[in-house]
Design goal:
Blueprint lengths: L2 H17 L4 E7 L6 H20 L8 E7 L4 H14 L3 E4 L3 H7 L8 E4 L12 E3 L4 H14 L4 E7 L2 H16 L3 E7 L7 H7 L7 E3 L6 H11 L5 E3 L6 H7 L7 E6 L10 H18 L5 H19 L6 H10 L23 E7 L2 E4 L5
Helix pairs in contact: 2-11, 3-4, 5-6
Length: 374
Protein backbone atom coordinates (compact mmCIF):
# COMPACT_ATOMS: atom_id res chain seq x y z
CA UNK A 1 0.00 0.00 0.00
CA UNK A 2 1.40 3.38 -1.00
CA UNK A 3 2.07 6.02 1.62
CA UNK A 4 -0.39 8.44 -0.02
CA UNK A 5 -3.17 5.83 -0.01
CA UNK A 6 -2.42 4.97 3.60
CA UNK A 7 -2.59 8.63 4.58
CA UNK A 8 -5.85 9.01 2.72
CA UNK A 9 -7.34 6.06 4.57
CA UNK A 10 -6.13 7.39 7.90
CA UNK A 11 -7.60 10.81 7.21
CA UNK A 12 -10.93 9.25 6.21
CA UNK A 13 -10.91 7.09 9.31
CA UNK A 14 -10.21 10.13 11.48
CA UNK A 15 -13.02 11.99 9.78
CA UNK A 16 -15.38 9.11 10.40
CA UNK A 17 -14.48 9.14 14.08
CA UNK A 18 -15.06 12.86 14.29
CA UNK A 19 -18.39 12.49 12.53
CA UNK A 20 -19.75 10.20 15.24
CA UNK A 21 -22.39 12.18 17.15
CA UNK A 22 -21.51 12.94 20.74
CA UNK A 23 -23.87 12.72 23.70
CA UNK A 24 -26.59 15.29 24.33
CA UNK A 25 -25.66 17.19 27.47
CA UNK A 26 -28.58 17.91 29.80
CA UNK A 27 -27.89 19.93 32.93
CA UNK A 28 -29.84 19.49 36.14
CA UNK A 29 -29.77 21.81 39.16
CA UNK A 30 -31.27 20.20 42.26
CA UNK A 31 -30.83 20.29 46.05
CA UNK A 32 -29.57 16.80 46.79
CA UNK A 33 -28.57 17.69 50.34
CA UNK A 34 -29.95 20.05 52.98
CA UNK A 35 -33.53 20.75 54.10
CA UNK A 36 -34.88 20.76 50.52
CA UNK A 37 -33.27 17.46 49.53
CA UNK A 38 -36.66 15.76 49.67
CA UNK A 39 -37.60 17.78 46.57
CA UNK A 40 -34.33 17.55 44.66
CA UNK A 41 -33.78 13.83 45.09
CA UNK A 42 -37.30 12.96 43.96
CA UNK A 43 -37.03 15.05 40.81
CA UNK A 44 -33.57 13.63 40.19
CA UNK A 45 -34.94 10.09 40.33
CA UNK A 46 -37.35 10.87 37.49
CA UNK A 47 -34.54 12.50 35.49
CA UNK A 48 -32.17 9.54 35.93
CA UNK A 49 -34.87 7.02 35.12
CA UNK A 50 -35.62 8.85 31.87
CA UNK A 51 -31.96 9.20 30.82
CA UNK A 52 -31.23 5.55 31.57
CA UNK A 53 -34.28 4.38 29.60
CA UNK A 54 -33.38 6.54 26.58
CA UNK A 55 -29.78 5.36 26.60
CA UNK A 56 -30.78 1.72 26.96
CA UNK A 57 -32.75 2.11 23.71
CA UNK A 58 -29.78 3.59 21.85
CA UNK A 59 -30.38 7.26 22.56
CA UNK A 60 -32.20 9.85 20.45
CA UNK A 61 -31.19 9.96 16.79
CA UNK A 62 -28.17 7.88 17.70
CA UNK A 63 -27.05 10.20 20.50
CA UNK A 64 -27.00 9.18 24.15
CA UNK A 65 -28.16 11.46 26.97
CA UNK A 66 -25.51 12.74 29.34
CA UNK A 67 -27.30 13.97 32.47
CA UNK A 68 -25.07 16.18 34.61
CA UNK A 69 -26.54 16.99 38.03
CA UNK A 70 -25.28 19.88 40.15
CA UNK A 71 -26.25 20.01 43.83
CA UNK A 72 -27.21 23.60 44.61
CA UNK A 73 -28.27 22.80 48.22
CA UNK A 74 -31.21 25.18 47.57
CA UNK A 75 -28.72 28.07 47.70
CA UNK A 76 -29.27 30.68 44.96
CA UNK A 77 -25.59 31.59 44.64
CA UNK A 78 -24.67 27.96 44.09
CA UNK A 79 -27.49 27.49 41.59
CA UNK A 80 -26.05 30.37 39.57
CA UNK A 81 -22.63 28.72 39.56
CA UNK A 82 -24.21 25.44 38.45
CA UNK A 83 -25.95 27.05 35.46
CA UNK A 84 -22.87 28.95 34.35
CA UNK A 85 -20.82 25.78 34.43
CA UNK A 86 -23.45 23.94 32.37
CA UNK A 87 -23.58 26.73 29.81
CA UNK A 88 -19.79 26.56 29.43
CA UNK A 89 -20.01 22.82 28.88
CA UNK A 90 -22.65 23.24 26.17
CA UNK A 91 -25.80 21.92 27.84
CA UNK A 92 -28.71 22.07 25.38
CA UNK A 93 -31.19 22.54 28.24
CA UNK A 94 -31.29 22.75 32.02
CA UNK A 95 -33.69 21.04 34.41
CA UNK A 96 -34.41 23.60 37.12
CA UNK A 97 -35.25 21.09 39.83
CA UNK A 98 -34.72 23.44 42.76
CA UNK A 99 -36.72 25.82 44.95
CA UNK A 100 -38.09 29.29 44.28
CA UNK A 101 -35.11 31.43 45.29
CA UNK A 102 -32.68 29.35 43.25
CA UNK A 103 -34.95 29.34 40.20
CA UNK A 104 -35.33 33.11 40.33
CA UNK A 105 -31.56 33.44 40.45
CA UNK A 106 -31.14 31.09 37.48
CA UNK A 107 -33.62 32.74 35.13
CA UNK A 108 -31.59 35.84 34.21
CA UNK A 109 -28.72 33.58 33.09
CA UNK A 110 -30.76 31.97 30.31
CA UNK A 111 -32.00 35.09 28.52
CA UNK A 112 -30.36 33.78 25.36
CA UNK A 113 -30.84 30.12 26.22
CA UNK A 114 -30.54 27.28 26.79
CA UNK A 115 -34.06 26.16 27.70
CA UNK A 116 -34.80 26.10 31.42
CA UNK A 117 -37.50 23.60 32.38
CA UNK A 118 -39.17 24.16 35.75
CA UNK A 119 -41.33 21.69 37.75
CA UNK A 120 -41.96 24.15 40.62
CA UNK A 121 -45.37 25.88 40.69
CA UNK A 122 -43.87 29.00 42.26
CA UNK A 123 -42.09 30.76 39.40
CA UNK A 124 -44.43 31.48 36.42
CA UNK A 125 -41.75 32.37 33.85
CA UNK A 126 -42.42 35.31 31.50
CA UNK A 127 -43.51 34.37 28.01
CA UNK A 128 -40.58 36.15 26.37
CA UNK A 129 -38.11 33.94 28.24
CA UNK A 130 -36.55 30.55 27.54
CA UNK A 131 -38.03 29.13 30.76
CA UNK A 132 -41.03 26.80 30.67
CA UNK A 133 -42.97 25.60 33.72
CA UNK A 134 -44.41 22.07 33.49
CA UNK A 135 -46.62 22.30 36.59
CA UNK A 136 -49.75 24.28 37.36
CA UNK A 137 -48.88 27.54 39.09
CA UNK A 138 -49.30 28.06 42.82
CA UNK A 139 -52.23 30.30 41.94
CA UNK A 140 -53.82 27.36 40.10
CA UNK A 141 -53.28 25.11 43.12
CA UNK A 142 -54.91 27.68 45.38
CA UNK A 143 -57.85 28.04 42.99
CA UNK A 144 -58.37 24.28 43.27
CA UNK A 145 -58.45 24.60 47.07
CA UNK A 146 -61.06 27.37 46.84
CA UNK A 147 -63.17 25.21 44.52
CA UNK A 148 -62.97 22.31 46.99
CA UNK A 149 -63.99 24.65 49.82
CA UNK A 150 -67.05 25.76 47.84
CA UNK A 151 -67.99 22.13 47.25
CA UNK A 152 -67.70 21.64 51.03
CA UNK A 153 -69.70 24.74 51.87
CA UNK A 154 -66.71 26.44 53.55
CA UNK A 155 -65.84 30.14 53.47
CA UNK A 156 -62.95 30.24 55.97
CA UNK A 157 -59.50 28.67 55.98
CA UNK A 158 -56.53 28.71 58.35
CA UNK A 159 -53.09 28.76 56.73
CA UNK A 160 -49.54 28.26 58.01
CA UNK A 161 -46.88 29.50 55.58
CA UNK A 162 -43.10 29.47 55.72
CA UNK A 163 -41.12 32.69 55.82
CA UNK A 164 -39.00 31.80 52.75
CA UNK A 165 -39.50 32.80 49.10
CA UNK A 166 -41.80 29.85 48.41
CA UNK A 167 -43.90 30.82 51.41
CA UNK A 168 -44.28 34.35 50.08
CA UNK A 169 -45.58 33.01 46.77
CA UNK A 170 -48.14 30.91 48.64
CA UNK A 171 -49.29 33.85 50.71
CA UNK A 172 -49.71 36.08 47.64
CA UNK A 173 -51.77 33.37 45.91
CA UNK A 174 -53.92 32.81 49.00
CA UNK A 175 -54.64 36.50 49.50
CA UNK A 176 -55.65 36.93 45.87
CA UNK A 177 -57.73 33.77 45.43
CA UNK A 178 -59.50 33.73 48.80
CA UNK A 179 -59.93 37.50 48.62
CA UNK A 180 -61.54 37.28 45.18
CA UNK A 181 -63.82 34.49 46.44
CA UNK A 182 -64.79 36.51 49.55
CA UNK A 183 -63.38 33.77 51.77
CA UNK A 184 -61.77 34.52 55.11
CA UNK A 185 -58.05 33.74 55.35
CA UNK A 186 -56.39 33.40 58.75
CA UNK A 187 -52.65 33.40 58.24
CA UNK A 188 -49.63 32.59 60.40
CA UNK A 189 -45.95 32.44 59.42
CA UNK A 190 -43.36 29.93 60.59
CA UNK A 191 -39.62 29.65 60.11
CA UNK A 192 -38.48 26.53 58.27
CA UNK A 193 -36.17 25.68 61.19
CA UNK A 194 -38.92 25.92 63.82
CA UNK A 195 -39.46 22.85 66.00
CA UNK A 196 -42.93 23.79 67.22
CA UNK A 197 -45.96 25.24 65.43
CA UNK A 198 -48.41 25.31 68.33
CA UNK A 199 -48.63 29.11 68.48
CA UNK A 200 -49.23 29.46 64.75
CA UNK A 201 -51.89 26.74 64.72
CA UNK A 202 -53.64 28.17 67.76
CA UNK A 203 -53.93 31.47 65.89
CA UNK A 204 -55.45 30.01 62.71
CA UNK A 205 -57.40 26.90 63.80
CA UNK A 206 -60.34 28.17 65.83
CA UNK A 207 -63.55 26.21 66.21
CA UNK A 208 -65.09 28.04 63.25
CA UNK A 209 -62.24 26.95 60.95
CA UNK A 210 -63.02 23.61 59.28
CA UNK A 211 -59.85 23.32 57.16
CA UNK A 212 -56.20 24.14 57.89
CA UNK A 213 -53.63 24.45 55.10
CA UNK A 214 -49.88 24.01 55.64
CA UNK A 215 -48.49 25.47 52.45
CA UNK A 216 -44.78 24.89 52.57
CA UNK A 217 -42.53 22.08 51.36
CA UNK A 218 -39.74 20.33 53.19
CA UNK A 219 -38.97 18.33 56.29
CA UNK A 220 -39.96 21.29 58.48
CA UNK A 221 -43.58 20.72 57.54
CA UNK A 222 -43.51 17.67 59.83
CA UNK A 223 -43.39 20.20 62.68
CA UNK A 224 -46.85 21.47 61.75
CA UNK A 225 -48.30 17.94 61.69
CA UNK A 226 -46.77 17.04 65.06
CA UNK A 227 -48.06 20.24 66.66
CA UNK A 228 -51.46 19.61 65.08
CA UNK A 229 -51.56 16.26 66.87
CA UNK A 230 -50.33 17.66 70.19
CA UNK A 231 -53.07 20.30 70.15
CA UNK A 232 -55.64 17.63 69.34
CA UNK A 233 -57.12 19.63 66.46
CA UNK A 234 -60.10 17.91 64.83
CA UNK A 235 -60.01 19.63 61.43
CA UNK A 236 -58.67 18.06 58.23
CA UNK A 237 -55.14 19.26 57.47
CA UNK A 238 -54.13 20.01 53.89
CA UNK A 239 -50.41 19.83 53.06
CA UNK A 240 -48.39 21.22 50.19
CA UNK A 241 -48.01 19.22 46.97
CA UNK A 242 -44.33 18.83 47.86
CA UNK A 243 -45.07 16.82 51.01
CA UNK A 244 -47.25 14.18 49.42
CA UNK A 245 -44.52 11.55 49.40
CA UNK A 246 -44.10 8.14 50.94
CA UNK A 247 -41.18 9.51 52.96
CA UNK A 248 -43.29 12.31 54.42
CA UNK A 249 -46.19 9.98 55.19
CA UNK A 250 -43.77 7.64 56.94
CA UNK A 251 -42.49 10.50 59.11
CA UNK A 252 -45.98 11.47 60.28
CA UNK A 253 -47.64 8.05 60.48
CA UNK A 254 -47.83 8.19 64.29
CA UNK A 255 -49.10 11.78 64.42
CA UNK A 256 -51.38 11.91 61.38
CA UNK A 257 -54.38 14.26 61.61
CA UNK A 258 -57.98 12.97 61.36
CA UNK A 259 -57.88 13.63 57.61
CA UNK A 260 -54.76 14.43 55.58
CA UNK A 261 -55.45 16.23 52.31
CA UNK A 262 -53.19 17.56 49.59
CA UNK A 263 -53.09 19.35 46.23
CA UNK A 264 -51.98 17.23 43.28
CA UNK A 265 -52.03 16.87 39.54
CA UNK A 266 -54.80 14.45 38.59
CA UNK A 267 -52.21 12.00 37.22
CA UNK A 268 -51.53 10.86 40.78
CA UNK A 269 -54.94 9.16 40.61
CA UNK A 270 -54.95 8.37 36.87
CA UNK A 271 -58.35 6.67 36.87
CA UNK A 272 -59.82 10.18 37.11
CA UNK A 273 -58.12 11.40 33.92
CA UNK A 274 -60.70 11.75 31.14
CA UNK A 275 -58.09 11.60 28.34
CA UNK A 276 -57.26 7.95 27.59
CA UNK A 277 -53.73 8.74 26.40
CA UNK A 278 -52.92 10.72 29.53
CA UNK A 279 -54.41 7.98 31.68
CA UNK A 280 -52.29 5.31 30.00
CA UNK A 281 -49.08 7.34 30.16
CA UNK A 282 -49.60 8.27 33.81
CA UNK A 283 -50.30 4.69 34.87
CA UNK A 284 -47.31 3.42 32.90
CA UNK A 285 -45.01 5.88 34.65
CA UNK A 286 -46.41 5.11 38.10
CA UNK A 287 -45.86 1.39 37.52
CA UNK A 288 -42.37 1.79 36.04
CA UNK A 289 -41.23 4.12 38.82
CA UNK A 290 -42.49 1.79 41.55
CA UNK A 291 -40.75 -1.16 39.89
CA UNK A 292 -37.42 0.66 39.56
CA UNK A 293 -37.24 2.33 42.96
CA UNK A 294 -39.43 0.03 45.08
CA UNK A 295 -41.40 2.98 46.42
CA UNK A 296 -44.66 4.67 45.60
CA UNK A 297 -44.32 7.58 43.15
CA UNK A 298 -45.73 10.93 44.20
CA UNK A 299 -46.67 14.37 42.96
CA UNK A 300 -43.03 15.54 42.70
CA UNK A 301 -42.03 12.47 40.69
CA UNK A 302 -44.93 13.13 38.31
CA UNK A 303 -43.78 16.70 37.72
CA UNK A 304 -40.33 15.30 37.00
CA UNK A 305 -41.91 13.01 34.42
CA UNK A 306 -43.71 15.95 32.79
CA UNK A 307 -40.37 17.77 32.62
CA UNK A 308 -38.54 14.95 30.84
CA UNK A 309 -41.45 14.47 28.43
CA UNK A 310 -41.09 18.10 27.36
CA UNK A 311 -37.33 17.66 27.07
CA UNK A 312 -37.70 14.53 24.95
CA UNK A 313 -40.20 16.21 22.62
CA UNK A 314 -37.70 18.98 21.96
CA UNK A 315 -34.82 16.55 21.42
CA UNK A 316 -36.83 14.44 18.98
CA UNK A 317 -38.71 17.14 17.04
CA UNK A 318 -36.35 20.14 16.88
CA UNK A 319 -33.60 19.51 14.26
CA UNK A 320 -30.99 21.31 16.35
CA UNK A 321 -32.03 21.16 20.04
CA UNK A 322 -29.15 23.48 20.91
CA UNK A 323 -30.94 26.22 18.96
CA UNK A 324 -32.84 27.71 21.90
CA UNK A 325 -34.93 30.01 19.68
CA UNK A 326 -36.13 27.06 17.58
CA UNK A 327 -36.85 25.01 20.69
CA UNK A 328 -38.83 27.91 22.18
CA UNK A 329 -40.87 28.32 19.00
CA UNK A 330 -41.60 24.59 18.92
CA UNK A 331 -42.89 24.51 22.51
CA UNK A 332 -45.00 27.62 21.99
CA UNK A 333 -46.77 26.05 19.02
CA UNK A 334 -46.91 22.30 19.71
CA UNK A 335 -48.72 20.49 22.55
CA UNK A 336 -46.54 17.89 24.27
CA UNK A 337 -48.04 14.53 25.18
CA UNK A 338 -47.33 13.63 28.79
CA UNK A 339 -48.94 12.31 31.97
CA UNK A 340 -51.08 15.42 31.51
CA UNK A 341 -50.48 17.11 28.18
CA UNK A 342 -48.45 20.30 28.26
CA UNK A 343 -49.75 23.30 26.35
CA UNK A 344 -47.58 26.38 26.09
CA UNK A 345 -48.11 29.40 23.86
CA UNK A 346 -46.31 32.61 22.85
CA UNK A 347 -48.14 34.35 25.73
CA UNK A 348 -48.04 31.57 28.35
CA UNK A 349 -45.10 29.42 29.47
CA UNK A 350 -47.03 27.44 32.10
CA UNK A 351 -48.03 24.04 30.72
CA UNK A 352 -50.92 23.14 33.06
CA UNK A 353 -53.75 25.08 34.69
CA UNK A 354 -56.28 24.74 37.52
CA UNK A 355 -58.25 22.11 35.59
CA UNK A 356 -55.27 19.78 35.93
CA UNK A 357 -55.40 19.90 39.76
CA UNK A 358 -57.27 17.61 42.16
CA UNK A 359 -57.64 17.69 45.94
CA UNK A 360 -56.64 14.26 47.21
CA UNK A 361 -56.80 12.46 50.54
CA UNK A 362 -54.60 9.80 52.14
CA UNK A 363 -56.51 6.55 52.69
CA UNK A 364 -54.79 3.33 53.80
CA UNK A 365 -51.45 4.60 52.51
CA UNK A 366 -52.75 5.69 49.10
CA UNK A 367 -53.80 9.07 47.73
CA UNK A 368 -57.37 9.10 46.40
CA UNK A 369 -59.78 11.81 45.30
CA UNK A 370 -60.91 13.68 48.43
CA UNK A 371 -64.57 13.81 49.33
CA UNK A 372 -65.97 17.17 50.50
CA UNK A 373 -65.70 18.14 54.14
CA UNK A 374 -69.01 17.64 55.92
Amino acid sequence: MSRSLLCTLLVCAAGAVQAQPGPILIGEVAPLTGPAATVGTRLNKASKMWADDINAKGGINGRKIELVTCNDEARPEKAVACVRDMQEKGAVMVFGNSLTASLRAMQPLVKQGPLLLIPSPNVVPPADSYAFQVSPSDLHLTEAIAKYMKESGLNKIGMVAATDASGEVGVESAKKVFGDQKMELRLARIDLRATDASTQLANVAGQDIKLVYSSYTGAGAVTVVKSFKILGLPQPLMVSYGNMSEAFVSLIKDVAPPRLLGTSVIALVPEHLSNAGERERAQAFLDAYAKRYSEKPDMINLLGKAEVDVAEAVLRKVPNPADAAAAKKFLESTPVESIQNQRFSPTNHVGLDASSVMIVELKDGNWIKAQPIR
